[in-house]
Design goal:
By secondary structure, this protein is an alpha/beta fold. The strands form three sheets. Strands 2, 4, 5, 6, 7 and 8 form a six-stranded mixed beta sheet that branches. It has a three-stranded antiparallel beta sheet with strand order 10-9-11, with helices on one face. Helix 3 packs across helix 7 and helix 6 packs across helix 7. The protein starts with a strand and ends in a 9-residue tail after the last helix.
């Protein structure tokens, strides 16, 4: 990975941001990698020597690293921490590093530490990903002789919590929330792993033009809307969630009104370091669904 420094950070900031002690294994695939879009994974492998990232894009991850490091240094009582587990699945070595396994009687409870936005918690936008990730960690732990419970805890530490908003409905009372989740069965987890590994094996052998597109769900896409516009007015009179709803509204309006289809914007491309090699990204830009981030 080549790092750029568009904001001209001084050398001591560069050194902090560039430092990486992640225990990479070229012959393995991690649980979090397996959850990525297959297209992004395959393009990353094909262009690994050409990838670039600006140092400013690493700042958020350094927050998370700092929080994990501070928890790891505590040596929590009755817990195992930051252990990387491995297991062969089909023709791949699957790896995953849990944050905490807490011993309760003769069993273990999985606890994951997340630094995140308050709004991610309020809207539950990452809940499905959390359950997938922790289900894989649980499966790996079971394969490595840990008797891990089906329920797990997520230790959410908010990076943008505001005390002034804490009395609002649905807003968390403190900067920390412990969320309990039900994890998948071993059978469901293994089925998911098999499907993802098969997909990744197939896609990494394809030319870019033949790779399956990232889905709207993978792209974190908003839903399409239909705006009712009036001649001489810049803002919409009404924004509808379906074309049928827009047609019904238009029946009561005169010829000075029209319907404008607004394709749902996608958010993930902003964080994807292979977008410059991706024809789908260029198509999304041309369709107005994504900002051209490389001009």
């Amino acid at each position: 990975m080549k790092y750029t420094n568009k904001h001209n950070f001084p050398d001591f900031v560069k050194q902090w941001l560039e430092f990486d002690e992640y225990d990479y294994d070229e012959n393995a695939i991690s649980a979090t990698t397996l959850m990525k879009p297959a297209r992004a994974y395959a393009l990353g492998k094909k262009h690994k020597d050409e990838l670039e990232m600006d140092l400013s894009d690493l700042i958020a991850s350094r927050y998370g690293t700092a929080i994990h490091d501070s928890v790891e240094k505590i040596n929590l009582l009755g817990c195992k921490q930051e252990e990387r587990l491995k297991k062969a699945v089909m023709n791949r070595i699957l790896t995953g590093k849990f944050d905490i396994l807490k011993q309760i009687d003769h069993r273990w409870e999985l606890i994951d530490v997340k630094s995140t936005s308050v709004w991610t918690f309020i809207y539950g936008s990452r809940d499905e990903d959390y359950i997938k990730q922790l289900s894989i960690y649980r499966w790996l732990a079971v394969q490595n002789q840990y008797d891990v419970m089906q329920k797990a805890k997520i230790w959410l530490i908010f990076t943008d919590w505001s005390q002034s908003k804490a009395k609002q409905e649905s807003y968390p009372d403190t900067r920390i929330v412990i969320k309990e989740v039900d994890l998948w069965s071993d059978e469901k987890t293994l089925k998911y792993l098999g499907e993802r590994i098969t997909l990744f094996n197939n896609v990494e052998r394809m030319e870019e033009k033949d790779m399956p597109d990232c889905t709207d769900k993978e792209l974190w896409a908003k839903e399409d809307t239909w705006a009712i516009m009036k001649e001489g007015r810049k803002s919409a009179v009404k924004v509808c969630k379906s074309e049928t709803e827009a047609d019904e509204v238009m029946r009561a309006l005169d010829e000075k009104h029209k319907t404008v289809h607004r394709p749902g914007k996608v958010a993930r491309c902003k964080y994807c370091n292979v977008r410059k090699f991706c024809s789908q990204y260029k198509k999304l830009v041309s369709e107005g669904r994504c900002e051209d981030l490389d001009v």
